[in-house]
Description:
- By secondary structure, the protein is mainly α.
- It contains twelve helices and no strands.
- α4 (about 85-125) packs antiparallel against α8.
- It is globular and about 65 Å long.
- It starts with a helix and ends with a helix.
- The relative contact order is 0.13.
- Its main location: membrane.
- Keywords: Cell membrane, Membrane, Transmembrane, Transmembrane helix, Transport.
Amino acid sequence: MVVETLTVSDFPEILSRKNMLAIIVFSIMLGLAVSKNGGKDSLVGKLLNNLNNVIMTIISFIMKLAPIGLGAYFANLVGEFGPELIGNYGRLLAVYYPLIIIYVVIFFPLYAYFAGGKIGVRRMSKNIIKPMVTSFATQSSVATLPVNKNACNNIGVSEDISDIILPLGCTMHMDGSVISSIFKIAFLFGIYGIPYTGIDVYAKSMMVAILSAFVLSGAPGGGLVGEMLIVSLFNFPPESFPIIATIGFLVDPAATMANASGDTIASMMVTRIVEGKNWIRKKDVASE
Length: 288
């Protein structure tokens, strides 16, 4: 399964939407090879850079009309499936949002306890609300950076650590997005009446969820690329893409809240590993 997912039997097949993971692997290898042979100043590097600019320009043209096309297509879906589709979205949200709340309420304190014991839990609870509200409202991990930075300072995390961990967390700490990817996959299985069972299905779901959330999060339009990856690897019909793209918009506030506010706790955990389990007490003594 892994070999079939990462490779193709014939090179022209790599350009098919059904083999997105293979083309990602090929792109990484090509990028490494170009960097070893002159990088962006080489002939191939300049060609790829110009080609990228051309493609991005074409995409910008398409994206100007995309909202109209997506709206028309979704209207057609609603007309075809009626209230059933809306009800499915409602049930998904009724499960996803409480699950994120449960995750935050249970696991954030556990992470904070590992990072700083009972004192860590108290300080986390006192300072985590603003990052949560900011990330939920802005739906942006980057916009939450200053608030997370202030929370880390109040908790006692060293600036040397928070200055590194918080920016990295914007593209690497994606637990809410991973959970939402699993929901998207399960949703499509349900829509098409496919049994969501089997170790291979679960393993593939986890792999795709992690890849789409972590690896592609830093890329422009990474969320949409991740959703295309889901459609491609599970061989869903192309019309599935707008369905899960809509899910992405609906769950993004809660997903971003879990992603971004968790960056502060990640900074606490790294501090505990780097400076020892008594780092909070040491900071308190040093500040007195």
